[in-house]
Structure formats: structure tokens, C-alpha cells
Amino acid sequence: MTTIHPLPKHSLGRDADLRSRRGRTGGLLLAGAFSLALAAMVDAQMVLSLPEVSQRAVVKQRISLTDVTIIYHRPLVNGRKIWGGLVPYGDVWRAGSNENTTIEFSSAVTVEGKPLAKGIYGLHMIPTADSFTVIFSKTNTAWGSYGYKEAEDALRVTVEPQPAEMHEALVYEFDELKPTSANVSLKWDKLAVPFAVAINDDETTLPNIRNQLRGIFQYSWESWYAAANFCLERKINLEEALKWADKSIQLEPRFENLGLKANILKALNRPEAAAAQAKAMEVATAQQLYFYGRQLQGQKKGDEALEVFRGVVKRFPDGIYGHLAKARVASSTGDFATALKEAKEAQTASPDDQQKAAIQALINRLEKKEDINK
Q1: How confident is the model at residue 50 (pLDDT cuts 50, 70, 90)?
Q2: What whole-number distance in Å separates Cα of residue 90 and Cα of residue 282?
Q3: CA 75, CA 18: separation in Å to the nearest integer?
Q4: What CA–CA distance (Å, rounded) separates 185 from 52?
Q5: Cα four-point dihedral sign 189, 191, 193, 194
Q6: How does DSSP classify residue 2?
Q7: Residue 46 has what pLDDT?
Q8: 311 near 283, Cβ under 8 Å?
Q9: Minimal CB count within 10 Å: which of 82, 243, 280, 303?
């Protein structure tokens, strides 16, 4: 028979003490681990977001189809000497406050005539009394210019500062807007620092349009029409524009795209232009023809406009636009009595109050025997 002997009291004490010590050690280890985890979590989450003295700003401008976006912070003059003082001459400056001022181009551009690839750049400047060196750095995540390295430059350009109205807070603005270019201007205190940004339609805009026409837009006549009309207005890429006009016509032949094709052929000095224009006129409504005539008048093509108005009279003699066309034709010959009668007929036939008011303006001029084509 096996006898079970109870443990001595001193053994129980040592075991209980050991368990107690292990518990305290485990608790200390757990507390330490929690503190480390909390510290790591604080590091990962950084610090609380609070209002800044130099407030964050974002400015964006589209040039053709290229977006230019600047993110920066806006320091205040606050009574201080800025140029050659707070911002020393000859040193690399962050072109703002706090972290990197950044400038992003959604496609390739030129800056002051020099090429710069699509991307996000850290924007820095080196000011002097007579010129500013504008720097586009491949590093855009630095704090200010403290970690700036010249070896990381993507581009440098030199520009002349200009006197400007007082700006208490630093600001970036887009000036001198044109279809394919704009000036980016840093303005602070009484100084402006402009640099020119431009895009090349052949290299950036047209590839963008071609890509769009590969998607859902390829199924609408309006998309091909808009692409071709863009080229005609810019006087670029006319051979491809002619193909785009044909694509639009294939989807739905209309006065708009048939007329556009005729105008592209005219721009290319093609003999087929006249036949294309005649085809466009055949499908036009009275309203389309009348406003085409008005468009020609706006282009100072008065004789061509009157031919269009005569065409409206012949095809649509009794509608609103037929009466308006008769009024313009009569007015051109000095027959103000007939012109006045036809204008009043058009006003009576019009169901639209705004149009009635516009026609009343013509009536007022005709009553004074003024030629409404001028």
C-alpha cells in the first residue's frame, strides 16, 4: 500500500513565494511590452493634428488637359523683413513653410522652355536681389529644404522677380492663362516670382484624346465631333481630324459634323470642301441654318451669311427663322418696311419670351431704319 505524504509547510511557502514572484515578473514584462507597443503606436500615428500658424493650401489649374497642382503652407509677413531677411539671399529656401512645397504635373510640360517629365516634385528656390533659381527636386517628402540635395534636382530654371501688390500671406497663383500655357507665380510681401509652364498639344493633349476615344466615348458622334473640332480650332492634326469627323458622320450624319468636315477640308485646301458644305446644308434645320448665317456674320463674312439667309427663306419661308431670314435679307437692301413686317411676324410666331425680347430689339432698330445685319 502506497502512503502519500503531505508536503512540508516550508515547501508550500517556497512554492507560493515562487508563484508570487513569477506573477510580479510576468506583470512587469506585460506592462513593459504594453508600453513599447503604445510608444510604437504613437510613433506610427504621429501626433494630433492641430491648427498651424502657416496654414496649408492647395491650388490647381488645368492647362489644356494637363493638371498642375501645388500644395504648400502660407507663412505671414507679420511685420518682418522677408527678402534678404527671414528668407536669406543665396540659400535654398522651401518656397513656403513646414514640409516640402510640392508641385505636380499630370503630364509632361516645359518650364521656362525646358522639358520636365510628369510627376510630383519638391519645389525650392534660391533667391537673390535680382533673380530666383527655381528648383524642381525628385524628392518631395522632405521637411522644408533642410534635407535638400542638389544631386536630386530634376530641373533648375532662373527667373526674374517682379514688384507686386502687398500679400501678407504667401500665395501661389496662375496668371497669363493661355490655351497651352500659364505663369505660376509665388507672391509674398511686395514681390512676385513667376515661372512659365507650357504643354505641347501634339505630345500631351492629342494622346490623351486618342486614349479617351478608345473607351466608351467612341460610341457617340459627339465625341468624335468634339475631338475633330478641337483640332480645327487649334489648327493642328487636321488629317486625323478629318478621319475623326468621318467617324462622327458614320455614327450619325448631322449638320454639325457634316459642316465640320467641310470646314476641315477648307482648312486643308481640298476641292471636296464645297460638296461637303452643300451636303451639310441639305440636312440642316431652319434654326441651324439661321444661326450658321449669324455665325458667318460674327466672322465678318456678310455676303456668305446673306446667301445662307436666302437659303432659309427658300426652304423654310413660314417659320420663325424664315421670317427672321426675310427680315435680314430685306434689311440688307434698305427695305425696312418689309424687314419690320417680317420681324413682327417672327415675334408673333415665337413661343419663347426670351426670344420675343431678342426680336423686339431687332424691331426697335428697324423702326429707326437701321440695318440689323451690322
Answers
A1: confident
A2: 70
A3: 63
A4: 23
A5: positive
A6: P
A7: 59
A8: no
A9: 303
- 257 grid coordinates: 459634323
Q: Point out which residues pair with 178 in neighbouring strands.
A: 181
Q: Quickly count: other Cβ atoms within 10 Å of residue 31's Cβ.
A: 10
Q: Edge-to-edge, what's the strand order for the sheet holding 109-111?
A: 114-116, 109-111, 181-198, 162-178
Of 110, 64, 109, 68, which is closest to residue 230 (Cα–Cα)? 64
How many other C-beta atoms are found inside a 10 Å radius of the C-beta of residue 227? 23
**Three cell numbers at 339?**
424687314
Write out the E strands in 25-149: 55-63, 66-74, 101-105, 109-111, 114-116, 119-127, 132-137
Give bridge partners of residue 158 from the DSSP assignment.
133
- Measured between its terminal Cα atoms, the distance across the chain in Å is 133
Q: Alpha-carbon distance 198 to 213, whole Å?
A: 24
Q: Which of 305, 295, 236, 284 is nearest to 264 (CA)?
A: 236
Number of other residues whose CB lies within 10 A of the CB of residue 322: 23
- How far apart CA 210 and CA 237 sit, in angstroms, is 12
Which whole-number Å values give the CA distances from 372 to 111, 320, 321, 353, 355, in the listed order?
A: 48, 16, 15, 20, 16
Kindly tell me if the per-residue pLDDT of 6 is higher than 60. no
Amino acid at site 374: K
**Model confidence pTM above 0.90:** no
Q: Give phi and psi for 237, each to the nearest 5.
A: 55, 40
Question: Of 374, 366, 223, 373, nearest to 290 (Cα)?
Answer: 373
Nearest-angstrom CA–CA distance, 365 and 331: 10
pLDDT for the residue 17:
42
C-alpha dist (Å) from residue 361 to 24, 358, 371: 97, 5, 12
How far apart (Å, rounded) are the C-alpha atoms in residues 70 and 66? 13
The 10s digit of each residue's pLDDT in 112-144 is 999 999 999 999 999 999 999 999 999 999 888
Tell me the pLDDT tens digit for each residue of 229-285: 999 999 999 999 999 999 999 999 999 999 999 999 999 999 999 999 999 999 999
